[in-house]
Write a structure and sequence with these properties.
By secondary structure, the chain is mainly alpha-helical. It has one domain: Four Helix Bundle (Hemerythrin (Met), subunit A) (Up-down Bundle), CATH 1.20.120.450. Helices cover about 65% and strands about 5% of the residues. It has nine helices and two strands; from the N terminus they run ααααααααββα. The chain has a two-stranded antiparallel sheet. Strand 1 and strand 2 form a beta hairpin. Helix 2 runs parallel beside helix 9. One of its GO terms (molecular function) is hydrolase activity.
Length: about 170
């Protein structure tokens, strides 16, 4: 079950990433929306309403969750750049996934949100100095983390959920 929930493994941070590693994390954010769009391409409503694992979210919920979670993460990141060690907000993702917008909003809406969000985030990230990445935030869920770790978590989160979608497609032969 753990490989169904975490098909790319659980998040592990690189504590002192090199400039090259940081560029790779940023690049993964740059290409994420195209990968997400490709992962759901050609799926019908019945397939989109299939949970990626027993007891898990449907593929549609996963896509809408990505838009919500990454919007929240972007705001937390910007707060980390502009405030001294802020306590980051959190949200009840389990309850948000049950709201009607997750059921009734076309996937393309959330994909467009992610395209715009990632464009802004990458524009911000590419000009940051190494010292900017040393700033920190406190996450109620994950504790204290530097922005270096936050950008890695952001990158991992997208890849993690896209892998949930693609692994279900592979298992189902879609």
């Amino acid at each position: 079950m753990d490989t169904l929930r975490y098909p790319i493994g659980q998040f592990t941070a690189v504590q002192e990433p090199t400039e090259e590693q940081r560029k790779q994390f940023i690049e993964s954010i740059t290409v994420m929306t195209d990968k997400l769009r490709h992962s759901v391409e050609g799926l019908g409503l019945e397939q989109l309403n299939t949970p990626y694992r027993p007891g898990g979210w449907t593929l549609q919920q996963v896509v809408h969750h990505l838009a919500d979670a990454e919007t929240n993460a972007y705001i937390r990141f910007k707060r980390g750049l502009t405030e001294e060690h802020p306590v980051a907000g959190t949200f009840r993702e389990d309850l948000w996934a049950e709201l009607n917008d997750y059921k009734d909003t076309p996937l393309e809406t959330s994909i467009l949100i992610l395209e715009a969000l990632h464009s802004r985030f990458v524009t911000l990230l590419v000009k940051l100095k190494t010292t900017d990445f040393k700033r920190s935030v406190t996450s109620p869920t994950h504790g204290d983390m530097t922005l270096d770790v936050a950008v890695q978590r952001y990158s991992w989160h997208s890849r993690h959920h896209i892998a949930q979608i693609t692994s279900l497609r592979e298992r189902m032969g879609w």
